[in-house]
Amino acid sequence: MHELGIVFHIIKQVKEVAKENDCSHISKVVMNIGEVSTIVPYYLEDCWKWAVEKEDMLKGCKLDIHIIDAVTHCDDCGCDYPTVQHAKICPECGSEHTWLLKGNEVEIKEIEVN
Amino acid sequence: MDEVRIIEIKKSVFDDNNADADKLRGELKEKGVFLLNLMSSPGSGKTSTLVRTINMVKDKLKVAVMEADIDSDVDAITIKEATGVESIQLHTGGMCHLDAEMTRQGLDNLPLSDIDLAILENVGNLVCPAEFDTGSCVNVMILSVPEGDDKPLKYPLMFSVCDLVLINKIDVLPYFDFDMEKCKENIHKRNPAAKVIPISAKTGEGIDQFAQWLQQQVAVWKA
Ligand SMILES: Nc1nc2c(ncn2[C@@H]2O[C@H](COP(=O)(O)OP(=O)(O)OP(=O)(O)O)[C@@H](O)[C@H]2O)c(=O)[nH]1
Ligand SMILES: [Mg+2]
Ligand SMILES: [Zn+2]
Question: Is residue B151 included in any domain, yes or no?
């Protein structure tokens, strides 16, 4: 499952950061997840709950997910529009010369340690 | 000591893997080993295409294969029996993709000093493998005719990370309303630089073109 692989990568990275900072426990991880990142937040949380219990350093660690709205930019008319509603085609001018401005993030924003 | 602190990270989850992958590519370049990452949906014809292609190039290149099935060694055995080249099974632990670290572990089990071309048959999936750079020198994907010509629109990331798209099972084109030109157009919308080769792993049509392309890529890498 995709989300489980992502969870393992998150755990690996936050553990490294915690060690570099001489912290013994991580109590919260805050993620920025883009609307069109292919991550399903609900699955991510499920995998998270299962995986953190296997890690001493992360026992009981909370996962906080911030959803980032997906926005696409049109090169022909210059407008920005919501990606989820209109996908590749600009709703203003019908152009296909568009690209994703934001919304595919799978980013670790910050962690709370003690 | 027990005070709560916030540490800002602001890093993509993929950053670490991307760095790992770049490092692995550098090591492979030094060793003169070319790594091909082959991706597709389950059953598009990865193993069948590999068998045909390897039999065509194995006199000129020393080849080894890593098979990343989730839970069986069927493909690894098929490759070994049908081509005679070294073929190993990677353990993905139920994962939907391979990352650079898992690929490195697989390569560690191959006699790299005696290999020109290492091939990774990735997990059958059009989403996850596209997000994880394996450290490969090129990414090749197979789209088979029964899957439909609209797949490049539905899985844009996979098509955008590929250097070459093989359109397989063209022997069954008469039975499907698959529009080859439309498909190429859809691929190039997502990735203008992608090369496209129609093949049939069943009849062998087009495999020589793929083999030629592959030999060229290996030669450039080892130069
Ligand atoms: N008609 C036809 N059938 C093909 C062709 N290539 C593969 N097949 C058949 O498609 C099925 C799957 O082929 P494989 O080579 O095992 O596909 P794969 O992508 O390795 O499959 P997984 O490893 O299970 O994801 C087999 O029954 C093949 O015989 C082709 O060019 N034409
Ligand atoms: Mg296979
Ligand atoms: Zn527009």
Answer: no
Q: What's the confidence (pLDDT) of residue B156?
A: 86
Rg (CA), chain B: 18
Q: What angle do CA B108, B94, A50 make, to 5 degrees?
A: 120
The pTM score is 0.88
Which atom of ligand 1 is the closest one to the Cα of B67? 23
Task: Give me the number of domains chain A comprises.
Answer: 1
Our count of domains for chain B comes to: 1
pLDDT digits (tens, 9 = 90+) for A32-89: 999 998 888 999 999 999 999 999 999 999 999 999 999 999 999 999 999 999 988 9
pLDDT given at position B2: 61
B9 domain residue, yes or no: no
Ligand 1 atom showing the smallest separation from residue B74 Cα: 23
Q: Return the structure tokens found at B110.
A: 């191959």
User: Does the residue B32 lie in any domain?
Assistant: yes
Its ipTM equals 0.86
Whether B118 is covered by a domain: the verdict is yes
Residue B27 structural domain: 19-142+204-222
For position A10, which CATH number holds? Answer: 3.30.2320.80
Nearest in space to B46 (alpha carbons), one of B115, B125, B104: B125
Cα dihedral B79, B81, B83, B89, rounded to 10, equals 30
Residues B145-181: tens digit of each pLDDT? 999 999 998 888 899 999 999 999 999 999 999 999 9
Measure the CA–CA gap between A21 and A110, rounded to whole angstroms.
13
Which residues of chain B fall below pLDDT 70? 1-2, 70-71
**Nearby residues for ligand 3 (ion, Cβ within 5 Å):** A 74, 76-77, 90, 92-93, 95
CA distance A70 to chain B (A): 16
Question: Domain holding B216: CATH number?
Answer: 3.40.50.300
Structural domain for A27, as ranges: 2-113
Our answer on whether the CB atom of B201 is closer than 6 Å to any ligand 1 atom is yes
Residue A7 to residue A46: CA distance in whole angstroms: 10
